[in-house]
Write a structure and sequence with these properties.
Elements: H1 3-29, E1 34-39, E2 48-50, E3 53-56, H2 58-69, E4 74-79, H3 81-90, E5 95-99, E6 109-110, E7 115-123, E8 140-144, H4 150-156, E9 161-165, H5 168-176, E10 182-186, H6 187-195, E11 206-217, H7 225-237, H8 240-246
Parallel strand pairs: 1-4, 8-9
Antiparallel strand pairs: 2-3, 5-11, 6-11, 7-10, 7-11
Helix pairs in contact: 2-7, 2-8
Length: about 250
């Protein structure tokens, strides 16, 4: 090999080595994904699944928005509800959002409350409109199996007649079919099913309670609660949380 050819080869080899080192450095420096746990028993608008993947809903949109503010990519870990605590305990998942501490016992750190939720009672227009919870005493109300409703227990006592179903969507379909006249649901769920065309004729809902949901952060995860709180603050300031909610919303007129 003559000197000129050798010089050219050495130059190209050096450039290739520099590119390889740069790629390796980038790979090493790239942050780990934000692993977001999602309960596979959740339904829209909280979560929609297709082919065993999270395809849409609050959990997906919020997880991706948080990951973006943290400079990471979101990866969703889909688990039955009973396995979520174990995943957070072990660090298999970094966090789960849209929960409250009483719903998820464990040694987790909780973020600030930030995601607005309203629990409401809806009644179809084929019966007399209730104006307060006490007006429903003795009447069957569509509820979800395994859920507790302390406000209804307090207001109605023995007059709280539950008709348990497996989901809010199934309960709303019971109302649409005329099988029941009253149901407890979240305002966001009601808004979503009206948006997608569920045929419901309802009075304005009675508000049972308002609260703001939080995120539980794993003590062994890749992000700290302070980092997540900072990201949440950014999402609130730039309007991202309101936009996520409005994407699935069409309110009753």
């Amino acid at each position: 090999m003559d000197r000129e050819a050798y010089t050219d080869w050495a130059k190209r080899a050096g450039q290739a080595l520099i590119a390889l080192l740069a790629a390796l450095t980038t790979a090493v420096a790239a942050p780990l994904p934000l692993v977001v746990a999602v309960d596979t028993g959740t339904e829209m608008p909280m979560a929609g699944f297709r082919a065993e993947h999270l395809a849409e809903g609050f959990h997906k949109d919020l997880g991706e928005a948080l990951a973006g503010k943290l400079g990471r990519e979101a990866r969703f870990l889909l688990l039955p509800r009973k396995r979520i605590t174990m995943a957070l305990d072990s660090g298999q998942a970094d966090l789960i959002c849209l929960y409250l501490p009483p719903w998820l016992p464990g040694e987790f750190q909780w973020t600030r409350a930030f995601f607005p939720v309203s629990e409401v009672l809806v009644t179809d227009t084929s019966v007399v409109q209730p104006h307060a919870l006490r007006d429903l005493s003795g009447q069957p109300i569509a509820t979800i199996l395994g859920y507790y409703y302390p406000e209804l227990d307090k207001a109605l006592g023995q007059g709280f007649i539950r008709d348990d179903g497996h989901s809010s969507s199934a309960n709303l379909r019971k109302i649409a079919a005329g099988r029941l006249h009253h149901a407890i649901t979240q305002q966001s769920t009601l808004d979503y099913y009206i948006k997608v065309g569920e045929k419901l004729s309802l009075y304005p809902p009675l508000v049972i309670k308002h609260y703001q949901a939080q995120c539980a952060v794993s003590p062994k995860g890749q992000v700290s609660v302070s980092e997540v709180n900072k990201a949440i603050g950014q999402l609130l300031r730039d309007g991202s949380v309101s936009k996520i909610i409005s994407n699935y919303q069409t309110r009753l007129r």
